[in-house]
């Protein structure tokens, strides 16, 4: 498999930071109360994660190993500061909606984790693809759960009222936690089923090739 394809599939699906690795739980539980805040947080993380991966990968041979974590935090904090200034200037409603969790992106374990585990060990193009893939995987997870929580909890979708019947608990922390847990269970079940099907197919192909060689 092409290495960039593998990096992309891992970030989006097989090592999805939210559903498979369960990283970034705090902003996830806080932002999935509405689809708009979920998308806003997700896309902000995409930009910061991609840029931080690129910068850290480019400087990986320059940053001393003994101070690499503080250096990563400085890079990420600078990017978050620029993001906050941009959102405050051009998207003030989204800036207010994200609130303090926007500043906490600095210590988001997804971003720090990718910097330490991937960007610091791979080339700039690979790090860029990894940042985009993991960021989009995070955005997909947040948006999906945000849509569910907002639709059933408020009867609306991206702020547009659709129905009157609501389950108010889904807009509360307990409801967000419930949706998060159920989403992880469903996602991992589907991925396990796909993996089992792939293994069965590979085994059948291997047996078929052995029979051909024996004949």
Fill in the keyword field for this structure.
215 residues; mainly alpha; two-stranded antiparallel ribbon; 9 helices; 2% strand
Quote the beta fraction: under 5%
* Residue share in helix: over 70%
In DSSP terms (H or I, runs of 4 or more residues), the helix count works out at: 9
Task: Assign the structural class, choosing from mainly alpha, mainly beta, alpha/beta, alpha+beta, or little secondary structure.
Answer: mainly alpha
Describe this structure in words.
This protein is 74% helix and 2% strand. The chain is mainly alpha-helical. It has a two-stranded antiparallel ribbon. Helix 4 crosses helix 7. The mean pLDDT is 92.
Task: Map the helices and strands.
Blueprint: H1 3-14, H2 25-31, H3 35-58, H4 68-90, H5 92-98, H6 100-103, H7 109-117, H8 124-154, E1 156-157, E2 160-161, H9 173-214
Antiparallel strand pairs: 1-2
Helix pairs in contact: 1-8, 3-4, 3-7, 3-8, 4-5, 4-7
Summarize the structure.
It contains nine helices and two strands. The protein has 215 residues and is mainly alpha-helical. The chain has a two-stranded antiparallel sheet with strand order 1-2.
